[in-house]
Hints:
The protein is of the alpha+beta class.
Amino acid sequence: MPLDGLFVHSLAKELNEQLAGGRITKIHQPYPNEIVMVVRNNSQNYPVLLSANPAYARAQVTRIPYQNPATPPNFAMFLRRNLEGARLSSVSQVENDRILHFSISTHDELGDDQTLILTLEMMGRHSNLFLVREKDQRILELIKHVPADQNRVRSLIPGAVYTLPPAQNMTNPFGHDLTALAKILLDMDKADWPKAIQQTYQGFASLSAKNLAKHLETGADAMQTAKDWLAHFDSPQPTLYQIDKKFTFAAFNWDSEQAGQPYDTLGDLLDAYFQGQAEADRVNQQAGTLVRLVKNELKKNQTKEKKLQQTLTDSQNAETYKVKGDLLITYPHLVHKGMHSVEIENYYDNNQLLTIDLDPRFDGLQNANRYFRKYRKLRSAKDYVLEQLKTTDMEIDYFNQIANQLAVASPKDVADIKVELIEQGYLREKVKIKTKGKQTKKPKHVLSAPDQFTASDGTLIEIGKNNLQNDKLSLKKANRQNIWMHVQKLPGSHVIVHSDNPSQETIEEAAKLAAYFSKARDSANVPVDYLPAGKLRKPNGAKPGYVIFEGQSTTYVTPDPLLVQKLKHS
């Protein structure tokens, strides 16, 4: 289901139960439209993600680690000054809309008690996050400043009075009876029920309205069925579904025909659902330069490969140029200036007539010398072309590998890939101009940790998400008897199973992970090679992530996204 008012109803309840009464200890803004607010409650730290991202707006307790910028944005600094150390009193929803109020008890500059409201509006491209003073509804700051010429309905700048978005004059299904629903069921065709439900009740996305209509069709008592359906949002059973290789989620298991993956909390569910999509969006924002570089390098090398292949084809035909030169030098009298071609008996081929193209500016001997020069050039070029083809093919493989890594990267992996491209000479590192006074030493890059998974029998599985991680994981960190895996003959992650004798089930699960984190993610029956890590070798001068091996075994698996979510470390 989409993150509509019904789902936000469940979110508000879960967040209130987890956070109410807690103290705000830290605030970060890892991305332009998102903050992470750490709330300490009942001896636990709850990282609360408040996102005003146009595509992925949401509020949740998240367990995904975020990389914070070196310099905190102004909005984060403002929130720190006003909210760190304050107590979070409650989390509430506005009617059944996609708006959440985080009520925070704190003190003003004079030390007097005051209440601030952190308001998150989750409304697509209009999503925003406000800090509002409750007593006068004054906007103290907001994450997106919107000029008056872009929004004439209400003022969205600091100092303005906060007003809710225009009301839609619909009924809150949780705050009123369902009398209007009876009229819909009696007076309308079943095909029109979803649209009528959407137009009557607040907070229904089309998918939610269709699901309620589906339950009403099969229920014996329609009104009781509707009440029971709505009651699930007060006692959610978070469920993730995969339909036609796409994920969707629901606050409860509302589809009896489709098996789903259950989660303990709505936060865990949203982490599982949004991690891939939201992180891909963040990676695109952070790694735009890298993506363009990889595309350009691939295009350049693929063009070069075509030219080299053509040169190689020509070089393989070098003997024909020698034959033509020999014939012209044997029968120079047959050629005169001004001729464009000549037919000569080819004594290399049973005296068959051979048509030879000529340059009309030259006589027979001069045309013969032209063919001999082409012959010598192509003969000497063949070895060079073969060497260049080998190098170009390696470059194409390398950048295909980088492209695949960017496709499955999380934001923490982008910095590693950037460092690798700088070290390999493909990207220039920005050097700060030296200024007078004390010089600061650039901190050494800290390599991010591989992703960790736990097999069904408890065995640890680690996956490298970039070449630097792969080298460290496979060649330095791994026990020589641990099992190493990689999808066969395609770009993909290195996988280490931390066992020298894993069960067949663990091998299959690890192989599915290897297939998922590879270019074969959307394929079926993917071959995955595996062998002890001690049998890996890295040739001298090889690029990061490149290893050779022999004596491997191969298993065939189909990537399973639900298994990835199930085995992922929290």
